[in-house]
Amino acid sequence: MEYDTRLEHKFARFSDTLEVEDGSVISGYASLFGAVDQGNDIVAQGAYATSLKALSERGARVKMLWQHDPAQPIGIWDEVREDARGLWVKGRLLVSVEKGREAAALISAGALDGLSIGYRTRKATKNSGGQRLLTELELWEVSLVTFPMLPSARVAAKSDDTDPDAGLRELAAAFAGARADLARR
């Protein structure tokens, strides 16, 4: 099966999986294995292994961007790894740059709660439910975003207990997913 070689994005929102420490260190899951997202895709366990190995061998890093904008790096991902749950990331927002300071403030206030991966699909199949099972991805970047696609999780600062705007973000994520699906066609 042939795949489009354009850069794709996969969004995720997390409850207690992204933590902010000291105002600039963030850690959490950028992708969860086995979860069906708004684009009807499922990322399989091990999908990032080849890409992460290649990056390590080259001494390269996954980029931390603001809203997938390559002109706006906002930090450094110090650790990016797979575990049994998904793709875990830990990094530092660069508060010496304007967008890094903004991101830290927005996360702390609960106004920004999404992560999104930028990748290319290397291997995928369709399952019996019609979903695309992504088995090998070339990971390029992990962005902080406003509207994530994976409704099973959201980003929160350590002090956040509740999320009164979750319903609105769910609706926005559905629109973003539909927009992404239309762009793929």
UniProtKB/TrEMBL annotation:
One of its GO terms (molecular function) is peptidase activity. Pfam families: Peptidase_S78 (PF04586). Keywords: Hydrolase, Protease, Viral release from host cell. It comes from the Bacteria. Residues 20-161 form the Prohead serine protease domain. Coiled coil: none annotated. InterPro entries: Peptidase_S78_dom, Prohead_protease. GO terms for biological process: proteolysis. NCBIfam families: proheadase_HK97. This is HK97 family phage prohead protease. It comes from Roseobacter ponti.
